Amino acid sequence: MKTKGVVLVEPGKVEVVERELVVGPHDVLVETEVAGICGTDKNFYLGRVPKMNGPGYRKNDTLMNLPFAIGHEGGGIVRDVGAGVRRFKPGDHVMNFDVNATMAEYFVADENNLEPSPEGLESEVACLGEAIACATFSGLHSNVNLGDAVVVYGVGFAGQIIAQVMKKKGAATVVVVDIVDEKLELAKSLGADVAINAAKDDPVAAVLDLTGGKGADVVAEAAGVDRTINQAIESVRHNGTLVFYSWVTQDVTINISRLHHDSLNLINTGLVHHTRQERTVWTPWALRPVVQGLTQITPLFNRRFDLEDAVEAFRRDAEDGVTVKTLLVA
Ligand SMILES: [Zn+2]
What is the CATH number of domain 2-128+301-329? Predict the structure, then answer.
């Protein structure tokens, strides 16, 4: 069958084109309800792709081969399944967990790259389950304890959720740091205690001031640039915890001596980069507080475009700085 979907042709240029879909024996055909533009997609769009290295990669391997049928956030309703599919049947509501060209009217995914949508979530939230589960997982695994002072660097979509989860876990003070006032105000409206605009004030000095010179118990890094990574490291107290979340696309120089000398705990919280089995186990737990209404997701969806208008959606997402999450409605 054919579908209309978004293709990244070259950095800075996306198009909505028709292409052929084939459903293999272990594949599921999903009719997309909503897809999301992730920070990752924005990096792809801007041509910011890191070098891949380590076991399993060859020299100069890249995550992005152009033209690239883009999209990993999204979900919808199962319309067809291959003969070997066991986990899903037509009519099931699912959310996608891998790069499967979700910014399209229909997408095809191996059944192991999908998770069932939990009951009780509105459609937009359920479709963005991957992004929500990943950020919630980070907050749940952040070591935050009752009474802690915590800092979140970067309150895009993930940082907004991490800040909310840390507050609900019992942090006494949640400090959010960003360079966009609108995002900081949103975080405060959703429970953060102190907002620091790092374009105007020194966030490290502010955190030290708030903590009697000690530094924060837990600091999450969700902005992903050289400056914020170093500020995050400098904001942690002796023996405190640094929660690493961002996908960092460029090489960064950090003061690693601080991690050694002050014996910082480093927690890597990228759920989708754990094993597939762990992801399947953890996703329902990560979405439980969302189903329970303990965290608020809908206010984070501050841009909505029809799939047809993906060109404009990407342009705005990359340029305006105020976007927390752009949804593409199929
Ligand atoms: Zn994502």
Answer: 3.90.180.10
Q: What is the pLDDT of residue 63?
A: 72
- In whole angstroms, what is the distance from residue 135 CA to residue 152 CA? 12
Residue 288 Cα, ligand 1 centroid: separation in angstroms? Answer: 19
- Ligand 1 centroid vs 324 CA: distance in angstroms? 12
What's the pLDDT tens digit per position in 21-35?
999 999 999 999 999
Q: Average pLDDT for residues 265-282, to the nearest whole number? A: 88
Q: How far is the CA of 74 from the centre of ligand 1 (A)?
A: 9
Residue spans in the chain of domains classed CATH 3.40.50.720 = 133-271
CA of 73 to the centre of ligand 1 (A): 6
Distance 131 CA to ligand 1 centre (A): 5
Report the top-level CATH class of 133-271.
Answer: alpha beta
Tell me the backbone φ, ψ of residue 15, rounded to 5 degrees. -135, 150
At 252, the pLDDT band (50, 70, 90 cuts) reads very high
From ligand 1's centre to the CA of 247, what distance in Å? 10
Q: Give residue for tokens 């790259």.
A: 113
pLDDT in tens, 93-110: 999 999 999 999 999 999
Distance between Cα 262 and ligand 1 center (Å) = 32
Contact 183, 156 (CB under 8 A): yes
Q: pLDDT tens digit string along 52-95?
A: 777 777 777 777 788 999 999 999 999 999 999 999 999 999 99
**β strands within 125-259, DSSP E:** 149-153, 173-178, 194-197, 216-221, 236-244
Distance (Å) from CA 112 to ligand 1 centroid:
17
In the block, tokens 């006032």 appear at 181
CA of 299 to the centre of ligand 1 (A): 18
Write out the residue limits of the CATH 3.90.180.10 domain(s) in the chain.
2-128+301-329
